Structures are given as C-alpha cells and as structure tokens.
Amino acid sequence: KNLACANVEEMTAGRLEEFIKQAKFSHPIYERTLRTLATRLKDSSNLGSLLRMDHDVNELVAAERKKAEAENQFLIGFPGLSAEQFKTQAGIEEFFDLLTAQIERHLNEFVRATRQAGQDAGHFVSEAGKGVRFLSLVDQRYDVVATNPPYLSARKMNKRLATLMAEEYGEAKGDLYAAFIVRCQELLKDGGLMGMLTMHSFMFISSYEDMRAKLREHIAVQTMAHFGGGLFAVGNPGTLQTAAFVFEKRATKAECDAQEGVYFRLVREPDADTKRRAFEAALAAHTQAQSHPLLFRYLQLDFDAIPGKPWVYWITNGLRACFAAGHSVGDICSPVAGLRTSDNTRFLRFWWEVGVSKIDRRCRTRQDAQASVLKWFPYMKGGRSRRWHGNQEYVIDWWRDGAQITEAIMEAYPYLGRPWLGGNQDYFKEGVTWSDLTTGRFAARHSPGGFVFDVKGSCAFPSNVWVLMAVLNSKLAHVLLNMMNPTVSFQVGDIARLPLTRDRTNEIERLAKCAVDLARLDAAESEKSYDFTRPPIASSTPSKRTGEVGEIEGSLDDVMLAAYRLQPPDVALIDLETGETPSGDLEENESHEQEEDESGEDGSPSDWARSWISYAIGTVLGRFEIGKPGGLGCGDFRAATVTAIRALMDPDGIMPCDEGHSQDIAARAVKCLSLMLGDAEAREVIRTATDETSDPVQAVRGWLDRFTGTPDKSFWKYHFQLYRKRPVYWPLQSPRKKYTVWVFHEKFDKNTLFTVRNLVEERLRLLERKITDMRPAAANNRGVARDMDKLADMADDLREFSKRIKEITDRGYTPHIDDGVLLNAAPLHPLLPSWPETKAAWKELEAGDYDWAQQAMEYWPARVKAACQTNKSFAIAHGLA
Fold this sequence. Notes:
Elements: H1 13-23, H2 28-40, H3 44-47, H4 53-71, H5 89-116, H6 122-139, E1 142-147, H7 159-168, H8 176-186, E2 188-199, H9 209-216, E3 219-228, E4 242-249, H10 253-257, E5 260-265, H11 272-287, E6 295-299, H12 317-324, H13 329-332, H14 344-347, E7 348-350, H15 351-354, H16 366-371, E8 376-380, E9 394-397, H17 403-412, E10 431-434, E11 444-447, E12 452-453, E13 459-460, H18 465-472, H19 475-484, H20 492-496, H21 505-524, H22 541-563, H23 568-579, H24 605-620, H25 639-646, E14 654-656, H26 665-677, H27 679-690, H28 696-705, H29 715-722, E15 729-733, E16 740-744, H30 752-778, H31 782-811, H32 821-825, H33 837-846, H34 854-859, H35 861-870, H36 872-877
Parallel strand pairs: 1-2, 3-5, 8-12
Antiparallel strand pairs: 2-4, 3-4, 5-6, 7-9, 8-9, 10-11, 10-13, 14-16, 15-16
C-alpha cells in the first residue's frame, strides 16, 4: 500500500473521459483532481519523484475551498469532514485519504463494468491508480526522509527535463541531486529529519546561492560528514565530491540560524577506508566532548559572513574577519569573463600556425586593432596552471573588429540578438588573467596588453595589476577561493568577492614584479613562446629558476599573512589546506573543456637536450632569426658564430634527410648545434637526447628517420607533441616512408612542391644509375643482387612519391596559412603518410565541414559560394561581403 511508482504512463484522454462520465462523482473536485493528474503525470517519466503533485492539488483544494466558502457547499460529498479540518495539514491529509479511497472504488467499478462489456480498461486503471497512490504519498509530511539521489548535471538532461527543472526547481536546476534536496525537505514535518548522501557543490558554488538561502529558511544542519573526493572507487575518484548530512526542519529561520551543527571534515583522506577510520576517531572525540582536527562545530548564522554565503564550516575567526573588513577585489575592478567565439576551430590558431610576422602584438585598444592591416591578434585562453606569466599560445582572427565572429555567433545563436562579445571594451588592455578551470592551486598571470581574451582566460583590469596578481597567487587567496567555491572552475564572481588588503602594497608589488621577470625567462627559453631566444643553457636552469620563484612566493605569503593580520590558528589552517589540495568537482564543470598541455615536456635532461636539437633543426630550416635583435629564436651568439650559422640555413625551408646530400638536414643540424654549443657539448647533448653513442650525425638521422615510438626515439613524435598536434615542420614522404623531405610550413609557397619533386627525381636518378652499375655483378653475386633489390624497392617508392607530387601540383595546390596547419596540409595528405590526421581533415573538407576555409574555396568553389549566400560570416571570410 505504501509503495508507489512515480513513473506513470499517460492516462489516455478517451478512457479518462469515459471513466469520469461513468463514475458520476459526488463532488467536482474528483474530476478536477483526475484531470490535473492526467496533465501532470505526462512528465512523470522525466521528473518521477520530483513531481510536485501535492502542490498542484493543494492549489486545487484551495481554489475549491474559496469557491465553496462563497457558495457554502464545499463539504457536499465529504460527509464527516468539517471546514476547520482543511486549515491544517492533518486535515488535508485526511481529506486526501478519503479522496483516494473514493477514486480507487470508482476505478474498481470501472474495471468490472468494462469487462462485462467485453472491453479491457486494465492499463488505464492501473496507471490512474498508480497516479492516485503517488499523490496520496507525496501529499503527506514525514518524520524522516532519506535517500541517495540520482546525479545528473543540467547539460546532460534531455530538453524536456531541463525545461521542467528550470520551471519547477529554478534555484536547483543545475543537477538532479540538488532538486532532490529541495524536494525532500518539502516532504518533512516540522521537526522531521532528512538524511542524504549527495554531491557537495550545492554548499558552495554561486549557482546554488539561492537554493542555500531557501534551504536555510527551514533547515537546520544537525550533522554532516564532508567526504570530498575518493569515497567511491569509480572512474576518477576525485570527480565525485560528496557529503552525507542530516537536516532538521524548523518552523522559523531564526531557529535555523541559531543551530550549531557538527561537521566532520574528511576531504583529505584518499579513500573510503581512511575516511571511515578518520570519521570514527573524530566521532569518538565528539561523543567525549573533546576537540579533534577533523571535528568542527559551527553556528549556522555565521555562514552569512562570506559573500555568497557558502557553507564553509571549517573557516577560522581570523579568515572570516578578512571578509568582514569589507574591501574586496570587486571594489577596485570588475573581473570580466571573455569571449566565446562559437567556433574555436575556425577563429583560433596556435600562434606558430600563422607565424609571428602575421600577428599584430602592438595594439593596446580596439581602435588600434581596427587600424591594423593584420588579421591575427594574441589571445588569452586559459590553459594549464601557470603563475605569473605564460600560456600565451593562441591567436584570434579579429579582422574588422571581429566581424566574422559576430556573424558566426548570430548564425549559431540567433536568439541572442546582436551579440556582446565578452568583455570587448577591455580587449588589448594590460591586466591580470587566470584559467577558469584548474585542479591545482589557483594561478594568476600578467596579461601584458595586446590580447583579446577568452571565457576560459577571464581577466581583471585594476590600476595596479601587480598587487592583484600577487594577492591572487598567494596561499591565502587559494584557500579563500576554495572556501567560496571548492570546485575546479573559478568564476569572475568568485574573484570579485575575494577580500583585498590595503597594507604593504609596495612590498607586495616589488615581489610580484620579481616573480614575473623570472617567469618571463622561462618563456624566453621555450620555442613555443613568442619571446623565445634559445633553450636553457643548462638542463638545471629551469628547476633552479622554479626554486627562486618559490622563494619569492614564500616571502610574498609571509607579507600577505601579516597584511591580513592573521594569527597562528589561521596560518595553520592555510598550511593544511594548501598542503595537498584535493581536486574539485569535475562533473559539475564538464561543460568546460579542460585545457591540457600535451607537449610531452617534462624538464628532464633528455627533454632539455632534445630542445637544443629541435632548435638546431628549426634554425637550418630557416625558422629562427639568428642574430636578429628581438627576432624569434635570435640566440645570444657571437657575430662570427651567427655568420657561420646563417650559412647553414636553407632560404626555402626545404631539406631532405639524405646522407651525402649537400642540404642533408641531419648533417647541417649537427654542424649548427656544434657552432652553438661547441663540438664536445653538442656531442653530449645528442647522446643525452637520443640515448645513442654512435656518430652524432647518424644518431640525429636515426631520430629524424623514425616516425613511430616515443619522443626520445622519434623527432616527429617529439615535434608533434611539442606543438600540440599542429607541427610547423612537415615530413613530405614517399608512400613507404623510405625518403623524407622536411619543409618549414611558413615558407611553403607555389614553388615548394616543384622543389621537393626535383629533390626526389635527383635521388631517383642516382639510384637508377647505381642499379644499372650493379646489374652485371648481381647476376653472379647474391649479396649484390639483394642490395640491388633493396635499391629497386626504394626507386619504386620514389617514383610513386614523384607521381603523387605531380598529381597534387597538376591539381593546383595553393597554401593558405590562415586556414591553420591541419587544413592547410590536408590537400597534401598523400605526401604525409606519417600524419594520418591530414587525410581525415581532407575528408571533412570534402564533406563541407569547413566551408569558411580558403582551401574549401580552392577545391569546391561552387559549393562554398552557395554557402556564402546564406551565411554572412562565410561571405566575409571569402571577401564576398
């Protein structure tokens, strides 16, 4: 009797009308109740137990009572019930018991009558009966409600469920579990208890602030075991952050505010077993009225001390006082969420895809950018956790003040109207930026000016960027931010609420500038940086510099603790919280695309050594501007060395890996490295990088010729990872990879393939002459015959290579660097067997996935021009609007 299925199939209109007509109910409220049930239960498959049927029918009862009081006839059909009973919950429940019994009696009679008539109303009656029983149960109020609710984030809900959640549970629409918390407390009597195990994000994040406020009007937290991550050994244990709690329903908010709850903080224990042991120890201390480091007693009213009112039960008085001071980041600036392009593949590039010569880094206002003749501008897009400086890898197509992006957003989201492009009034200003998504310590960086910024690289623009950056990078800020929002995604509102000191700003500014200067030196030693000069002079240099930055950060933390006037208990909590920060709710933020560094860089001596060989390879291919002041990879070599290195550089960026050839990339790279480091040091670098003790040129050749395996065995794998799958040196190869010509993509022009084919034909002629010379001896010597067969196989491979090059040149390949590395290389996929992604990209181009691209216009002009007729953004891209 007390079990009811919340998933009720639709009560068909025909049967419902037939039933109502036959039942001849004694009061119209029966009919109206059934019609309400039939309407609302259509959504039972989505909302299930979250259906607020009691709300709907209570409203119906209230309307009926109001009408009946006016007409003095409400009690007709309900013998034994007085009007006073309808003014209490118990009286209404008694009424529903009667209503349910009457409807069920009529349903049974309906089954009997239809069966006698040779019909079957069983399904309708079954579903109607389930609906009535469900209504009866949810209308009651309970002493205890307990559940482990389902978890489903809003972005994973079907459209109807998402709509219903927004309509029914607006303050808790972010996840099903949050709606269940709201619903379950509605089912409690005053004094009733609710026990649940849920995700913990409702306690903290800003999107649940209204939910917390509504809960606190009726709910007192009796006790909570805050588990954090690791309670369940499923998937990544850190992705499911949980808390178990007991709430008591109180009659007034004042009673709730006066509640001192008991909390067990078990977030740092790695798994269920260690959490259990820690909980048992803390519980024993609690029962004996003793203190314990994991045991907290907290007055509910004190949650109001922190902006957003998160349930930060473990905060000390000193840290709470930081917020009470009333001076916050939001008082000096307004942190701004940046741009959502609507299509990052189209509008964003890694800067090395277009090259520094095509990027305008000088703009400081939008007006500067509008006046620029260039279309690519630096772009801040979050990225891995780096403090002080870095993550300056992207550029954006901001031609004509972002005209294409504006139209693309209009095309994708027409309901937005003319879009406001993020914080566009602040583009190109100097400021402070941070990644919105991080599983480690919060990291703020200097944005030096000249950048458009992304929603994942939000920014703030205070008058003193150094002080704000220092505050954000302090241990104190990390702890306070995690108290306001202990997930992996920090929003601009979290930053704005952070308390800000007015003391010792000169010392704070000095330390911040020192840290940024050191971090910039790291950038100057990375070839993925705009500011690259050369690799580190020693493998230990980066780690030493990291240590220096760490010392500055330690001094900065000391200054910050003094500026905020924190006491030993506050410092102890900060040290505990920053000792090993647990990762936050990944599930809550899965809509954010995690920025991962897949470069494979690990700071090891072998990685350092490979960076020097890569530098030498890039130099001889003509990428680095050796000796040019401020030029990319300019180095710091003596004049004579610069002259000698420049003599090794190929002006066309085309070099075969071919022993004995005058342009052999392996031989030239080794000679270049020797000029840069000296013979002995170059030999040691090559040995460290490749783990080969053979001749240095042969070791480098082996690294260049191998296209499978790990980065220490294959230059291609190293380069492909380093440049985030957008390589700048392309290995044009014969089908069986027996012959490779390396090309620097920025120098690729209409003559490049002809030059490559000449190299292939030259090598083929040499092989053919050699085969001819060997043929007489091969007739009588098996060893010579085998060698000749190998050469013949290579000759066949070269002929096919030459043939494929000709097919592409005959078709008229034209490089379009603005399309990005992958799409620009896609038409060359028959020449790139070690880069299979290019073939996939060609198929996507062929299918019309990238009709904004110049390569699409080259090969399918009619289709692209037709697309431009209906897509203004495409038309702008192709100069047709």
